[in-house]
């Protein structure tokens, strides 16, 4: 009644029990580490933020490798190529948007039509930035 | 007009393999488009993060222990999904259904916790109509939740198909795609957990 | 009046709630719009009458509507796109007419709100339904044939994409009758597009028609990319693909990574309007600039999505009609790659003037100028292909030459606009309007019209009338220059876009009148094209394409007969170099008897149509706030998907014997 079940060897590799356990364990550690860093709160805010973002990216790689088997596919590595391009676009959209919006928000709040000398004086005075 | 070289073999078997290869790749490409959707929502959240319109910020609204439990539940479900796939490659139908059953329950647990958090926030008056920040929060986390819901629905449908047809080529292919989807959702959650909840609490 | 009517028909409150915001008030009135409604109605009724009279309903359903053959789907896309072109050009004609007469004490024949709906509809229709429709139509027709494949990667998805496109078209045209359209410009910037300043349903119509069609586009992007990557025939490495296929690949990569941004952004605007969220509202912590940022992060790739396949078509044409191999294949591929990547880093040039600082503007300005380099490479390679070629001035070749002249003018003004300091003077003026029409008409439209002329015989088995085609081309070419060069001048003189009235003292009217004449010449060109179609059909027996290769082509699609059989190739080709068909034609190897094998093809299905039908209902419910219909429609979509996935019977086999019979029958026909 059922059709023949051909054993597929798809371009997406499939892992072993060990790889899933390793991936799970590492992800657990990375998650808890990030959590503890934030809850502890004894380090400066910027350090914590940088650290947890690094931890998140590490967990991303862990899960891409151990759960999604990304680096293990057979050539040509189209899945990897697609992912890299997606990462590029994501980076451009997110970082580009943040850069643009920060720039716009600044201009909309403070104006952007001053002469350079006026502007630097303003920045020093109003924003209390040391020269 | 005929060609002059040997033509490729178009057997049923090779076509099935080709089917799998292109369908799974196509699904992967779809997941990449989903990444870009989430990227847009993340970017919007990042921009509106401070637009609380005078209201409490994320710091004061979110319970980190609660979110940690959610995170661990989802992570575990990603693991059990992996175990289910291992069973599938061993052609162990009973185990597949069992492990996906566990994954399903964990997914339901995750969703309930998330809905609890949402309704708690809404009842306190911090709903999505309150500010740009809250709109972005509910939409980003809510879109992830909608994807989880879709995944759970997919699980039910696929498990029914497996029960009826067994682990044949088509159901194996669909299992592969479902597991890709489920792992992908956990990966997105890593970033939600980090950027929405953890960074908000720093 | 409406209250009385409601009561008279016994509707009362219940009905009022059942239909959300929909009521008899929604019906649009006015002499001009009545004209549009009547045309729509007559067209629909005429089609129904014709089908009934010819007893072709079953044929329509079986052969076309439920078809998953990309050749059929392609034709349907093009028909819908051309119908929408008519509507878009009528919009343009109305705008030109208004601007030619609405000076000083005269206010023309369109009030401001109506005028605003017209330019919004014009832009939305032309981009989303005409350009995208022609593009996906041509890709469907040509790509599998060029790659030596039988079909696209996901035939059912292909059908669904087409019907989602139709659902979008349906919603947009519905707004002509019910509710009115957005009056915000084709990208509906907030805060104007937010509920506070656009309280009607017009913007919702805009959101949902584009959202639904956009999802169709996204799915097509995935479909065609996987087709190119996974379904090329044996021996066709990527670097042996025809240039059109490469250009489609670049375009689909752009679709895949840009359309999700549109999906997300439209959703956010819908959430603002429907659920009172504050993404882009003027108050409540919203940030309208974020919409502009995101929508252009999609919007810029979108224009490259449209132009790349047109470039690909021109590459094919110039090689075929110069009887010479395309110059610089590798550099052309590189150029497509560069354009694809660079498309993602220029988007701010659409809003230089909206508050970004010097460094941000400078970065995006420089990137914008850089993107003209690979574009220039493609243009020069086309010319180098012509150099020392033996050129045939067929209609498609005329379109190419027209493109070279027209697009270059537009490109040059583009590099001007890329300089923020210049852009500050002409942003949102008619100079800008002239520039982008220059690119879209000179590049996209000329390309797709050329493609339709070029590939017409492959699909229908006979060529289009050459002379009428040439008349049409000249009308378009001259009409375009008449219509848009004045706009460049007006822009520099200070004329803003989207004006429905201006002062007589400005001295602009003369130029607006010239522009109006230009549009009429373009309309004459379209008239010639309609005539060309009719005459060609009537005279088809004398224009038959008997060899399958009417132009002495170089690529695989010309190796099949015309019209191409439903299975494309009886035996899948094996290629060994560029211009695969050219080598096959000129090889000295003996022709061996083909060995046929069983072929598996997808069955026709109405499911794609049903999914899109439910999507249409969802959009309708979202627009009119019909609370009970929305979840039902969603369940409908999901239900169709589940039912389809459970279906075992989605393919059928054409046996080798049947193939042999079909091929022999054709050969006999040929000999006769």
Write the SSE topology:
The complex is a heterotrimer of chains A (131), B (202) and C (672).
Chain A: H1 17-40, H2 45-66, H3 78-110, H4 116-126
Chain B: H1 12-48, H2 58-61, H3 64-89, H4 93-123, H5 132-165, H6 169-201
Chain C: H1 2-8, H2 12-18, H3 31-53, H4 57-65, H5 70-101, H6 112-146, H7 155-177, H8 202-230, H9 243-275, H10 288-321, H11 329-342, H12 358-386, H13 395-417, H14 420-426, H15 430-460, H16 466-493, H17 509-538, H18 580-586, E1 599-602, H19 607-624, H20 629-646, E2 651-654, H21 656-671
Antiparallel strand pairs in C: 1-2
Helix pairs in contact in C: 5-6, 5-7, 5-17, 6-7, 6-8, 6-15, 7-8, 7-19, 8-9, 8-19, 9-10, 9-11, 10-12, 10-15, 11-12, 12-13, 13-15, 13-16, 15-16, 16-17, 19-20
Structure, explained:
The complex is a heterotrimer of chains A (131), B (202) and C (672). Chain A is mostly helical. In chain A, 69% of the residues lie in helices and 0% in strands. Chain A is built from four helices and no strands. In chain A, helix 1 packs antiparallel against helix 2. Chain B has six helices and no strands. In chain B, helix 1 (12-48) runs parallel beside helix 6 (169-201) and helix 4 packs antiparallel against helix 5 (132-165). The longest helix of chain B is centred in the first third of the chain and has 37 residues, at 12-48. Chain B is elongated and about 60 Å long. The longest helix of chain C is centred in the first third of the chain and has 35 residues, at 112-146. The radius of gyration of chain C is 25 Å and the shape is globular. Chains in contact: A-B, A-C, B-C. Chains B and C meet through helix 1 and helix 5 of B and helix 8, helix 9 and helix 20 of C.
